[in-house]
Amino acid sequence: MKGCGKMRVLFRKDLMVCGALIATTLASPALAFTACQVTDTGGIDDNSFNQTAWKGVLDASETLGIEGRFLESQAETDYDANINSLVDGDCDIIITVGFLLGDATEKAAIANPDQPFSIVDFSYDPPIDNVLGQVYATDQAAFLAGYLAAGMSKTKILGTFGGINIPPVTIFMDGFVQGVDHWNSVKNDGVTVLGWNIDTREGLFTNNFDNLDDGRAFAQNLYDEGADIVLPVAGPVGLGSATLADELGVEKLMIIGVDADLYFTDTERQHVYLTSITKRMDATVADVIETTMNGDFHGGVLVGGLENGGVGLAPFHDMEAMVPDTLKAELEALRADIIAGTISVSD
Amino acid sequence: MTDATQGRVFGRTQLEDMVIVPLFALVAALVLGAVVMAATGVSPATIAQSYVALLKGSVGSVNAISETLTAALPLVLAGLGLALGFRSGLFNIGAEGQIVVGGLAAVVAGVALGDMSAFIALPGALLAGAAAGAFYAGIAGWLRAATGAHEVITTIMLNLISFRLLDYLLRTPFIQKEDRADPISKSVPDAAELPKLLTFLDANLRLHAGLFLTLAMVAFAYWLLFRSKLGFEFRASGENAVAARFAGMSAGWTIVLAMAVAGALAGLAGANQTLGILGRATPGFSAGIGFDAIAVALLGRSHPVGVFFAGVLFGALEAGGRQMQVDAGVSIDLIGIIQSLIIVFIAAPLLVKAIFPWGFRKAGKRENKS
Predict the structure, then answer these.
(1) Where are the domains of chain B?
(2) Nearest C-alpha of chain B: how many angstroms from A165?
(3) pTM of the model
């Protein structure tokens, strides 16, 4: 029953991806390097998290001629089984996408010590020899987004909500709130953020990463409370929020995207995005594939931040003219300060 | 439905009903699934490859069979419960919620009994799951018996309540895992886990002792329905509630009991997942099994043995679908389409008979009845 509503749309897109996949399979020689990806329940074409990581595999297949395969998880019970069915195959590296696959990946990595794994959004302490964790200092970019949103808000009220209360989600909200606080202290202003209390670690959560109706309902609630800019941190759920912004008009509600530059991935509603907090999982995934291909794989942690381009703030695109030049200059200065360490985002 | 609810001797009509219609429905669904793939631009070679992968991934290796059975177990357990309800004239949509409540109760009891020996902890956890499911379904039964509130509505509403209840309870201190802010329960201690059966062959094989539980429940459901007085009352009130009442059966009690037994079986399905596979409870661990189980119960014609085979078929589709994605790169959503098509054909036996005229007795005789 679950997911039936989106099935029709997803199906065609999936097959197009698959068509391309099969073409590459046939063209490449048998010795080709194979990278396999397991998604979480958001699915491979979530316009966000899983899709960005998959883009890394596709980029690598273009530039390095590797073969890419993916397995979509429909429920949490699939995680172990999906990873296992790839262990049986001939994957040179298995990339699992998401914090929620942390335990399943650990189990599989320990049971199969010769199989290289890489997991997005998770790292192990102590590290496991055959797992490379890819983590992101997303709060650095979210800090900039918070400062920007505070400067752009007319109602002086901003909103945010998350998918599940887990670190890779709340790190966006932490940075966002801190950026707003920074604006308030610099400008002596009183912009408030609804949906996340940085001290109690409580806030608004849909408790899923796939229900677009929730995204719409949560954004509607925040809008009703006066918010005119909303940051949804819940993968495809945010698309529901964008639909609401599209209907209300951007004068009333703007959305800040996450993970990918949603101006490009959600083209139907691209005009509602003020900016996006990008998490370049495609870059790190492609990087990991190349490293592994060259035989330099080793377990540990790979951190993406503002400095190495692992995270960033997307261009304003259609809203370029709306953002005042002084604000743009301040953001540029903030960015330099964060990289230099004069402003510390993470506690 | 009327055919299915009559406890007639196994004859030609029953054979058509229980075996031939489902078989042809499967064939028709697979053919239409291929048409869907072709219509979306998949080459014939890939379609063939998909179905080979489907077969390979469901029965082609020890791991495949293990995965098929692992996926089938909760579907069979919950499906048995729903079948009992259908036979009693109750259309219970609430298996999903009963799985949630049962699975969570099993985890809580398992954690509480974790220091005991496995002979106490495991049965205790399973019983807690069954009891919680029975209680939760019993609410809907009681509402029906006492107020006439229809169980379709109340069980759907109870499903929604259970999801939010799970989100809430998973963040309460007694249940939530230490040092975590997200909704996730403590891990089930080893003593309360359903032991894995095939780890001596390969550590990755997931088939667990829930298999024996499920087989026992198939036998129990058969005995209850066709060999016990209570089952006779269930079926009698399913056939004709008014007649059953005049025969001296308590309509209210029968409804509450039938719902409770159905809920206990769904609760066991939940316990089967949390104690056998996941080792903990998380939001959404029920994963739609309670809804798929409705299809399993219908496909199995509400007969315990039929439900078992229908559950294994759906488990095979799930396990095979995974392989299909790996080998042929075909979307897992296709499996959902095939499952749905099977149900469409099952729900319309006349359509199946029109497509496959052979295999059935001459029309006329039967069609008057249907």
Answers:
(1) 73-315
(2) 5
(3) 0.81
